[in-house]
Amino acid sequence: MTAFISRAELLASGFTPAEIRGHLATGAWTSVARGRYVTKPGGAHGSVGERHAVRTHAELSRFRSEAIVASHRSAAVLHGLPLLGPKPGLVEVTRDGVNGSRTSSSVQVRASKVPPEDRVRIDGTAVTSVARTLVDLARHDEPLQAIAAADRALATERVTGSEVAAAMARLGSAPGLPAARRVLQRADGRAHSVGETRQRIVLEDGGITGLAFQIEIRDDHGGFIGRTDAGLVELGILIEFDGKEKYTKYLRPGERMSDAVLREKKREDALRALGWMVLRFDWSDLRRPDDVVQRVGQEIEHRQEARLPRGSVMAADPVRITF
């Protein structure tokens, strides 16, 4: 985490108010919250998520009350959970209690019960636990955002379904819980990116049944060919989400993007040689969900009489949240 320093600490160390203003005016220092500054060169120029994390720590340091915790999207950033779309502009916090909700130019404060079991500390800052963060996202954010965050948390064993259920139970009859239950029940821990989660939701909402996920495919001799995002195994159809992360996250030492693209093509050629049909969708496709469902439906019809692919498969089991 990029460190910040308070105005009081700077004054105590000998800086004058004029010197502080001068450093801010030249851009050498950056204000990340009222009276909180990043003074290291480049410290305020990390990724959007990294900058929001610094702002969250800085804003929370201004609250003297132990009743305040980072929550919602800000907590998701600190926990390393994926966010859909741009990172939050406002730092989101929750005040333990029933009163005190407000929004300023930099912070959104919600009032809600936050028992000790739903609190953790990250780099000294009080934050809602992963389980409570998922519940809050499901209560107040877009359903896809909550499902994608839950998928990641479940897949990486950052949380269990029973922990999420317990966090929700501790909220009693708080507003938004019935809808939150319905949302979180759709998470299953078998998506490795927001795009994969979105693809699964599109297919399920479109009535595509019998889907398997994180499918490991081997050839006739047991040799590993690859792992695919989703598919209809009994029909020999594989469905891949083609996000940029697929070609950047798993680059090998010394590889360029073009090397990863070529490796992916060879993998797909090997899958087709075994008899698999491979469908690929990207974000532009998922913005037209009806077209995606129609294309998969057409392939289902075409594959009814097709021979099953050679080799063997093994799919991941779901990890669900039940209430």
Walk me through this protein's architecture.
The chain is an alpha+beta fold. The chain has 2 domains: 46-184, no CATH class; 194-314, 3-Layer(aba) Sandwich (Endonuclease, Chain A). It has 13 helices and 14 strands. The strands form 4 sheets. Strands 13-12-11-10-14 form a 5-stranded mixed sheet. A hairpin with a 3-residue loop joins strand 6 and strand 7 (107-112). Helix 4 (72-79) packs antiparallel against helix 5 (130-140) and helix 5 (130-140) packs antiparallel against helix 6 (143-155). The longest helix has 17 residues, at 257-273. The protein is globular and about 80 Å long. It starts with a strand and ends in a 9-residue tail after the last strand. The model has no long low-confidence stretch (mean pLDDT 89).
Which features would summarize this protein structure in a list?
five-stranded mixed β-sheet, Endonuclease, Chain A, 2 domains, Restrct_endonuc-II-like, globular, 13 helices, DUF559 domain-containing protein, alpha+beta, four-stranded mixed β-sheet, 323 residues
